[in-house]
Design brief:
alpha+beta, MetI-like fold, 5-stranded antiparallel beta sheet, 15 helices
């Protein structure tokens, strides 16, 4: 039975008003509350519809029209999309991003979060790693475009690579040097050999050009005295020199008083096409071979003397451009993953970890069998969030990849922009790419929303 209330009548002379049911009043209050809630939510719904729903619906509809937007083509844009080699490259690169970047970031974040707990200055370390998140993708792209520059004088990574290479392998002595024409013959491997043979007891001169006087080694000395020395009967000697006199007063092919020797040049004595002896020139460019059997020899300057200097790694070439851009992405987002996983790590029950240590488990066993399983929900959220993020990465790819390799690094987001506005001017095909990207993102978004709802329960 529904109870009723009777309103109080003050100063009323007529019969009392009819009773008001409590159920009816409750329905009116709930209706009023819904209306007030809708009034508060309406501005947000309006913005959501204008900025999200309408663009999505418009893009879906636009994907069924041609480039001009006037002729209905049905699913032709979707068919063309999967026949276009550039789109297939974008799909492949997007798959690489989705598989590699979130996994690396989650792993790095987990490792750093665990290690930071053991660092005394943990807060400062976290701040240092999280700081790249404050840098915009545009600025980060410019920074890494300079860092990846192929010129070792500009790109810090290639400068480091060249330094390490030269420290272990060394570099050629005279990369710009070449023989004076008519005096030496050049081989296919870049080496130079004397045009005529020589025998022990003879001296040879090897004139070179193409070296600036300022590029000569500091210990280089004039070759005139060395060129005047006579060879002993059992030795073959000679001099390698820079056939250039400052001021232009020298004679070609003749060692003049002011012409410098080329120290550190590798020299070989060759007989029957095989090297039988080797040496290195002195500070005045002189060299000599002793103990050679009687016979004729050619003197050869190996090609290693003239090899171009090591220029480093082509980070932004077709083969490495995508891994290089992923490296820039890792630099930005590692702090994000570390902080989120660190927050989850701080909530772990310490008694479980201490109990494992009391039972004799080492740190690796604790990490693998206790820490990681307990952090699985947090790791899943971080991983899925990063998957959604990498699917729509645009700024880094567009800024870091040079124009000639832009197609090698393109992902779905950049390909959509290039097709629509970057010269393709085909917004029908671009809208189809946008719809494809939306369909790929939706499953990850749904998974994340369900995960959040389960955690709230």
């Amino acid at each position: 039975m529904t109870s009723t209330t009777y309103p109080k009548q003050r100063g009323a002379s007529g019969p009392p008003l009819p009773p008001v049911p409590r159920a009816g009043r409750g329905r009116r209050m709930r209706r009023r509350g819904r209306i007030i809630a809708l009034l508060f939510v309406f501005p947000a719904l309006l913005l959501l519809g204008a900025l999200v729903v309408y663009p999505v619906l418009f893009s879906v509809g636009r994907s069924f029209f041609d480039a001009s937007g006037t002729r209905f083509v049905g699913g032709d844009n979707y068919t063309e999309m999967f026949r276009d080699p550039a789109t297939l490259t974008a799909v492949r690169n997007t798959a690489i991003w989705v598989v590699v970047a979130p996994a690396l970031l989650t792993g790095l974040g987990l490792i750093l979060a665990v290690l930071v707990e053991k660092v005394r200055w943990a807060t400062a370390f976290k701040l240092l790693l999280f700081m790249p998140m404050a840098v915009s993708f545009l600025a980060a792209g410019i920074i890494f475009r300079l860092a990846y520059d192929e010129d070792p004088g500009k790109g810090v990574l290639n400068a480091a690579a060249v330094s390490v290479h030269d420290a272990f392998k060394g570099s050629s002595s005279y990369p710009t040097a070449r023989a004076r024409q008519g005096w030496l013959t050049q081989g296919r491997d870049g080496s130079y050999t004397t045009a005529r043979s020589a025998s022990p007891g003879e001296s040879v001169t090897l004139p070179m050009v193409g070296v600036l006087p300022k590029d000569l080694p500091k210990g280089a000395s004039p070759a005139y005295t060395a060129a005047g020395r006579r060879a002993a009967p059992d030795e073959l000697r000679g001099v390698v020199y820079l056939d250039f006199t400052p001021g232009g007063s020298g004679t070609q092919g003749k060692v003049d008083r002011r012409e410098s020797g080329l120290p550190g040049m590798k020299v070989e004595a060759v007989r029957d096409g095989r090297s039988v002896a080797g040496t290195t020139t002195a500070s005045d460019g002189s060299f000599r071979f002793t103990g050679l059997p009687a016979g004729s020899y050619e003197v050869r300057l190996p090609g290693s003397n003239f090899a171009p200097p090591y220029q480093g790694i082509s980070w932004l070439g077709p083969a490495l451009v995508t891994p290089a851009i992923i490296g820039a992405y890792l630099w930005i987002w590692t702090g994000f993953a570390m902080v989120l996983i660190g927050a989850g790590l701080a909530t772990l029950p310490r008694d479980a970890l201490e109990a494992a240590r009391m039972d004799g488990a080492n740190e690796w066993q604790i990490f693998r069998r206790i820490t990681v399983p307990l952090l699985a929900p947090v790791l899943t959220v971080v991983f899925v969030t990063l998957v959604i993020n990498v699917m729509k990465v645009f700024d880094l790819v567009y800024i870091i990849a040079p124009g000639p390799v832009q197609q090698n690094a393109t992902v779905l987001a950049t390909q959509m922009w290039l097709v629509s506005f970057g010269g393709g001017n085909n917004q029908g095909l671009g809208s189809a790419l946008g719809v494809l990207l939306l369909l790929l993102v939706i499953p990850a978004m749904v998974f994340n929303v369900r995960r959040f709802r389960r955690s709230q329960r």
